[in-house]
Design goal:
Elements (H helix, E strand, L loop, with lengths): L1 E2 L4 E4 L7 E4 L8 E4 L1 E9 L10 E3 L11 E5 L17 E9 L2 E4 L14 E6 L1 E2 L1 E10 L9 E6 L1 E12 L4 E6 L2 E6 L2 E3 L11 E6 L6 E3 L2 E3 L6
Parallel strand pairs: 1-4, 2-12, 3-12, 4-13, 11-14, 12-14, 13-15, 14-16, 14-17, 15-18, 16-19, 17-20
Antiparallel strand pairs: 5-10, 6-9, 7-8, 7-10, 8-9
Length: about 230
Amino acid sequence: PKQIPSNCLLRGQGANLTTLKIDLGGSGNGFNIQGSQSAIDTSCFMVNAYKDSTKIVVFNAASFVVGDWIRICEQDVDLVTSSWAIGSVGQIARIENINGNTIQLASPLRMAYALNRQPFIKKLNMKRNVGIECLSIIRLDNTAPEQAANILFQFAENCWLNGIASTNCTFGHVVAESSSNLQIEKSYFHDGFEYGGGGRGYGVVLQFTSNECRVENNIFEHLRHSM
């Protein structure tokens, strides 16, 4: 799979003029825009946090600085209906200010976080400012049973797709995981190798706490789920 670094634009001459064919022998995403999640830079909430507030208070904010992206997590077993989604309820947010152990977020909380759910934050190392424009992607290899994407955004922010035509996928044409502020527009996603269970034949997938993304003015054809 092609790893695309931050601050990179991949632009063709048009979807009818520039075509990238992907054949990875039945395994792997076509393109990865992929950051990481810190295993050690975490802190638990000190007090309850409330919906629409922009502030949270944690026990130790020393590992975080202004501009960091964080993932807010909590115990959510009773809030999801599929085992694969456990741990995904929360929010991706950017830190706008820190005063002691009080962290101010750039976006308001979309839900409340009660201490009995043991909420905590994790630091994210985000890929950012990646664009893919004006080209066609044709996937030649079926990766089943692996859930591979033609384009994967994982721990990514401020990235975009514009003017893409994507043909054939196993899981999803575009998959976003733990990402924020993505824009996917003016593109054409069509056809999958399969359409059954296990995640087959999706257009655009926003999952695992992805938020504040805009998907508009696209065409979806012959897919199990467009979005």
